[in-house]
User: Which sequence fits this backbone?
């Protein structure tokens, strides 16, 4: 009956998204009047695992063996499935991130468990079990009923806040039996990303246009990107003039990106540019022209001189990150 | 090597999505149906591999679960260059159902590589590919941004949160691809459209399988609010909003 | 002996022509020779009147004099052949006064042409004329030119010598002179020691030199760029008579598209008479015979390349090269095909081995090259035909254009916008815009269909222009309606980019829509839509009266119904950029100027205006893609030219031009003082609408 949250770790460490997942699971467990179990796979220290307890985990299970050193979808599916069955979990919650997408669907078939992906709210009801799911690329949301005894939910990233519910959770090391022939993935080479954040991968992008007036004014923009951990981009005229690299050009004839946050500085919002960034979750526009088309698609805007606004923004972010 | 590409039929991305029958069904009036953009890229990559004589790809098949109204989309895939297709004659009820039907259709022949787009623009499920692999009991690799054939065996690049991995898996397996798998989708040539008419499309009746989930109603998101303007003298307010309201930083 | 020489000449010439004719047999038909009367008209104006040559007035005059001189001297040459065969002496002198006139004119011509040739040789050898250079101008071209010019000079000098000799020996012998030789007579006076024998010898030597040079020259010409001596007049006679903006329909594609659009046949098996014929042009044998004719007539003058906006800004495209490459390729492949059959594959092709994709994709289809060519060669149709091959056979095109194709196919516009948003431009207008569907519901039809176009619907800047025009229509109480969300792309960008299939699908659908509404008159502000409706839709069964908004506004202004207040511009200087698709493509130059001259007393032309106007760079689907590699952007070049007029307002009449010029002003940081406005906006402003 319990709720099981599978919390991915990165080199033995959890991220903010892991704790959001546990917070969510804790609330779902509350709705179902049952307990919350957290599952971790791989080498994770007790100290790190205890952190899960701060967000409501009742029991923490650690599975670690020679087969889980790398992500093999079949192996991970098998591990999670075995734990679910052993613990008689009825709701499984996984993050809708890269690993989650790789494993959860297999789990669904394995356990004949109905699955809802990209859920962003707590279940709307538990009988029938109904969740709120993003569809049509954000143009609509569906109420999805899951008809099976075991249910799988993948939680959309960045959609649930942390809730601290300190619990003195016990850590249990569980061993599962994995057939060695199941591990088929062979990693021939690993490339760790070095240096600059790739524009198309970035969650936050700070972008500059002609309104910046000169390449010499880019300093504050780059600094803002840096403190936000964002990638930098630019509009076409800027890359045409050689102020910024061609690699940064976003737009119809440049890169099409869809970050969580796109900050457009000194960009008017011409059709061709918007074609490259309109799928961004949030758009912030900073422009001296209040009639600039960009304000029609931005959620937040500042009508002002970028050169004065940017440094203040940098300060504000630095304050935040303290 | 035989490649199979699963394709989904979705409304064109500029469609203004509306619902009928008390918001339980999509209003299909006036909708232009297209191949799911991720599947289009997936098909493009498969065809690029086929064009490379050294890769040894014998054929590219497309598979789809859908009613007869999906024919034009399948023909489009054939026009772009696929050799043949099969369609399971059923409404795509949910991902589990679709995956089950596709797995069955795929199981009728020997395919070495099965390509699925990581999501479809209508359901955004990111589920079908992995489910097909589990039904077939074969390995899967997800978040793949490139597929190459080296010495007759496929090598894939899997994107991770901190970089990428070069992976090899014995065939047959399912590759779940994301954008980047091909630079841009191929278009159908005139010649392709003409020959597409004669390429074989096998129709299979669905097996008895039940979907595990059901959509009861759709909701439109609240209308995009007008831009919130922040005082240029107080930009810190913007940062606060971004953190607390938008939750993007 | 003469007869022998003549026989050899004719024999060699016949053989050369026979070979060329065999090459023609490999090419495609598709250029029916009709409208003979009109053709004669074109021939007299362009060939004999040298109107195109005079587009460069000074050097054009020199060429015209040479050409006219040649025509006149031709008479004398014919007489020489007759004399040679029949052993007569000036056989045609029985023609009396006419004969004296012709010979006299011929004599004058000899000297004028000689001087002109010397000027031409001087220019070539000592001056650096830009259009004589280029990657396609190899050493052989220069040698060819110099040899041909030298031969002509020899012809003229030998003619002069002939005439001097004749004049002198007749005068000295006291015999009567046949014909008049005004200049030679005076030149003869400059010669010192004259004896009857020496003058007669001069005559004989020059006579034989002249006629043998003609024989040699005639046989060299087919291998030289000077083949244009034979080919130019026929080529002009065979000119394309359609408006330059029109691209020819591909009927074999129409057949296929109609099958595709009919749900019953769209998946039926292909008809058994499946055309094996290639779509578009890949190699020399794929061209229409007239295009090959063009390539043989090309004299490598380079005027086309010198006005090509792509070439001017350093891109690889050179219209001259395109024609020269076709000629060279046929020269290479023709003999191979004669020997091994038409399907022979030598693993080379016109496409890629001669003309690269980069060159083809750089073209803006501005028609400057075709407009400039003195013998009416049509380069753009070959360039687009090669694009047609790339797109329709290989599905190959720059990525951004593939996206444009997908967008037009999926959502009916080159950019990704929903058709439901096509009336956004009319938001917040003080009057409502009538809809065609509303009229139809009432069982009525408006007088005009106002066609908005995709730019009017989705381009933020151009929406303002459409609003301005709608305000004027409302002010004039015109009976019109719009299609709103029923509008879809005319297919113009698809056709310019070589996607004939997509173009026809769009066109046939639009024609069907117009039919259902009984559309007769179309009013539009976009020159591209205008061009397509007017010139290209009739081939697919769509016949309408298509009116460009400037023609419309000018008519109302002339009739006094549209009162334009010239004070509204506060005396600002205005210049005008001719859109290629209004100007060169359709010959509309006067109406915009008439309107602007009503708006301001300070109208100033750019250096290159009218049919000489430099393209803004957006045509030929360039608007939607990255420019090809070059030294400069075309739109910057044109903006700089506009700025040089010192005008405070740059008036335009096209959404693409407007985008380019506005970008240009931003680039040059002049957008504060200089504004780019559409003529409709200027008029609406003057009416205070």
Assistant:
């Amino acid at each position: 009956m319990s709720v099981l949250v599978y919390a991915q770790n990165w080199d033995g460490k959890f991220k903010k998204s892991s704790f959001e997942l546990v917070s969510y699971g804790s609330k779902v467990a509350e709705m179902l009047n049952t307990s919350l179990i957290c599952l971790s796979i791989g080498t994770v220290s007790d100290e790190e695992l205890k952190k899960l307890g701060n967000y409501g985990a009742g029991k923490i299970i650690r599975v670690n063996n020679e087969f889980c050193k790398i992500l093999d979808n079949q192996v991970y599916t098998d591990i999670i499935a075995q734990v679910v069955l052993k613990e008689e979990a009825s709701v499984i919650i996984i993050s809708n991130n890269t690993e989650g997408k790789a494993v959860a669907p297999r789990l669904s078939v394995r356990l004949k468990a109905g699955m809802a992906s990209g859920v962003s709210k707590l279940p709307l009801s538990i009988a029938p079990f109904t969740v709120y799911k993003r569809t049509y690329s954000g143009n609509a949301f569906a109420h999805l009923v899951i008809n099976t005894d075991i249910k799988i939910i993948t939680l959309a990233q960045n959609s649930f806040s942390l809730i601290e519910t300190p619990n003195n959770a016990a850590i249990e090391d569980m061993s599962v039996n994995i057939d060695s022939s199941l591990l088929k993935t062979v990693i021939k080479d690993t490339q760790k990303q070095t240096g600059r954040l790739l524009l198309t991968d970035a969650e936050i992008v700070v972008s500059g246009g002609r309104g910046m007036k000169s390449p010499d004014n880019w300093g504050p923009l780059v600094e803002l990107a840096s403190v936000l951990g964002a990638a930098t981009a630019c509009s076409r005229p800027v890359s045409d003039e050689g102020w910024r690299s061609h690699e940064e050009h976003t737009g119809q004839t440049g890169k099409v990106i869809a970050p969580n946050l796109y900050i457009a500085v000194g960009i008017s919002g011409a059709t061709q540019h918007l074609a490259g960034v309109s799928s961004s979750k949030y758009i912030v526009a900073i422009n001296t022209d209040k009639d600039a088309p960009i304000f029609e698609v931005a959620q937040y805007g500042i009508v002002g001189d970028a050169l004065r606004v940017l440094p203040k923004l940098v300060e504000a972010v630095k304050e935040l990150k303290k | 090597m035989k490649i199979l590409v699963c394709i989904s039929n979705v409304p064109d991305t500029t469609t203004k999505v509306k619902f009928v029958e008390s918001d339980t069904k999509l209003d299909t009036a006036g909708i232009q149906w297209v191949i799911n953009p991720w599947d289009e890229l997936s098909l493009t990559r498969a065809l690029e591999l086929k064009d490379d004589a050294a890769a040894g790809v014998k054929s590219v098949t497309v598979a789809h679960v859908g009613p007869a109204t999906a024919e034009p989309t399948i023909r489009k895939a054939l026009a772009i260059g696929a050799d043949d297709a099969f369609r399971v004659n059923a409404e795509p009820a949910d991902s589990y159902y679709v995956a089950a039907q596709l797995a069955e259709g795929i199981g009728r022949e020997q395919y070495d590589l099965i390509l699925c787009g990581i999501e479809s623009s209508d359901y955004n499920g990111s589920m079908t590919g992995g489910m097909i692999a589990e039904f077939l009991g074969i390995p899967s690799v997800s978040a793949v941004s490139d597929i190459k054939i080296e010495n007759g065996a496929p090598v894939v690049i899997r994107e991770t949160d901190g970089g990428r991995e070069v992976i090899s898996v014995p065939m047959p397996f399912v590759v779940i691809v994301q954008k980047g798998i091909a630079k841009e989708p191929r278009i159908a040539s005139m010649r392709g459209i003409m020959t597409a008419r004669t390429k074989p499309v096998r129709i299979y009746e669905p097996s008895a399988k039940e979907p595990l989930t059901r959509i009861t109603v759709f909701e439109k998101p609240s209308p995009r609010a007008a831009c919130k303007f922040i005082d240029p003298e107080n930009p810190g307010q913007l940062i606060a909003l971004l953190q607390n309201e938008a939750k993007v930083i | 002996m003469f007869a022998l020489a003549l026989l050899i000449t004719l024999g060699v010439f016949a053989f050369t022509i026979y070979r060329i004719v065999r090459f023609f047999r490999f090419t495609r038909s598709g250029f029916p020779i009709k409208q003979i009367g009109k053709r004669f008209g074109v021939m007299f104006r362009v060939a004999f009147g040298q109107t195109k040559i005079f587009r460069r007035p000074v050097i054009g005059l020199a060429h015209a004099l040479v050409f006219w001189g040649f025509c006149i001297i031709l008479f004398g040459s014919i007489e020489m052949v007759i004399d040679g065969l029949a052993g007569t002496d000036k056989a045609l002198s029985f023609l009396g006064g006419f004969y004296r006139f012709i010979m006299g004119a011929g004599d004058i011509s000899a000297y004028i042409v000689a001087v002109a040739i010397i000027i031409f040789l001087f220019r070539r050898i000592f001056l650096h004329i830009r259009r004589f250079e280029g990657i396609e101008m190899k050493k052989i071209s220069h040698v060819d030119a110099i040899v041909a010019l030298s031969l002509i000079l020899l012809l003229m000098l030998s003619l002069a010598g002939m005439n001097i000799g004749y004049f002198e020996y007749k005068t000295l012998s006291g015999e009567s002179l046949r014909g008049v030789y005004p200049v030679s007579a005076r030149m003869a006076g400059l010669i010192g020691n004259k004896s009857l024998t020496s003058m007669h010898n001069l005559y004989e030597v020059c006579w034989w030199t002249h006629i043998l040079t003609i024989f040699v020259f005639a046989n060299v010409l087919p291998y030289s760029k000077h083949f244009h001596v034979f080919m130019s007049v026929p080529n002009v006679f065979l000119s394309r008579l359609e408006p330059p903006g029109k691209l020819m329909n591909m009927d074999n594609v129409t057949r296929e598209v109609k099958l595709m659009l009919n749900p019953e046949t769209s998946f039926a098996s292909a008809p058994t008479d499946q055309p094996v014929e290639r779509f578009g042009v890949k190699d020399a044998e794929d061209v229409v015979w007239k295009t090959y004719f063009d390539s043989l007539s090309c004299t490598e003058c380079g005027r086309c390349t010198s006005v090509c906006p792509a070439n001017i800004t350093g891109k690889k495209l050179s219209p001259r090269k395109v024609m020269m490459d076709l000629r060279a390729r046929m020269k290479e492949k023709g003999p191979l095909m004669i020997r091994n059959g038409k399907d022979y594959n030598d693993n080379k092709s016109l496409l890629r081995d001669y003309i690269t994709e980069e060159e083809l994709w750089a073209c803006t289809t501005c028609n400057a090259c075709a407009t400039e060519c003195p013998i009416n060669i049509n380069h753009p149709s070959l360039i687009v035909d090669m694009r047609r091959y790339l797109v329709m056979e290989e599905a190959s095109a720059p990525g951004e254009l593939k996206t444009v194709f997908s967008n037009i196919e999926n959502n009916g516009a080159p950019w990704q916008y929903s058709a439901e948003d096509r009336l956004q431009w009319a938001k917040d207008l003080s009057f409502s815009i009538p809809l065609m569907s509303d009229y139809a519901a009432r069982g009525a039809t408006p007088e005009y269909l106002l066609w908005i176009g995709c730019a009017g619907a989705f381009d933020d800047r151009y929406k303002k222009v459409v609003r301005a025009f709608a305000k004027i229509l409302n002010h004039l109480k015109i009976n019109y309606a719009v299609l709103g969300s029923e509008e879809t792309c005319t297919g113009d960008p698809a056709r310019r980019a070589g996607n004939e299939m997509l173009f026809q699908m769009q066109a046939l659908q639009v024609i069907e829509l117009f039919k259902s509404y009984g559309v007769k008159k179309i009013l539009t502000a976009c020159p591209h839509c205008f061009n397509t409706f007017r010139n290209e839709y009739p081939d697919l069964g769509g016949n309408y009266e298509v009116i460009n908004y400037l023609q419309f506004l000018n008519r109302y202004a002339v009739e006094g119904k549209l009162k334009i207040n010239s004070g509204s511009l506060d005396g600002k200087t205005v210049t005008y950029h001719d859109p290629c698709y209004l100007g060169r493509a359709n010959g509309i130059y006067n109406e915009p100027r008439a309107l602007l001259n009503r708006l301001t007393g300070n109208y100033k032309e750019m250096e290159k205006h009218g049919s000489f106007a430099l393209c803004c760079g957006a045509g030929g689907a360039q608007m939607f893609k990255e420019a090809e590699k070059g030294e400069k952007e075309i739109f910057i070049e044109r903006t700089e030219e506009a700025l040089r007029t010192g005008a405070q307002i740059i008036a335009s009449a096209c959404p693409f031009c407007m985008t380019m010029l506005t970008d240009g002003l931003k680039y040059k940081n002049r957008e504060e003082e200089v504004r780019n406005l559409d003529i409709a906006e200027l008029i609406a402003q003057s009416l205070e609408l």
In short: The beta strands of chain C are 448-451, 480-481, 521-524, 545-548, 574-576, 649-652, 675-678. Residues 171 and 450 of chain C are 79 Å apart (CA to CA). DSSP finds 29 helices and seven strands in chain C. The mean pLDDT of chain C is 93.
